[in-house]
Amino acid sequence: MHEINRLSITFFARRCKKDPENKIIYARITCNKTRSDFSLNRVLSGNLWDNHRLRGKGYSSYVLSLNKYLELIDWETIVIGLPTKLVQKF
Question: Which domain of life is it from (predicted)?
Answer without folding.
Answer: Bacteria
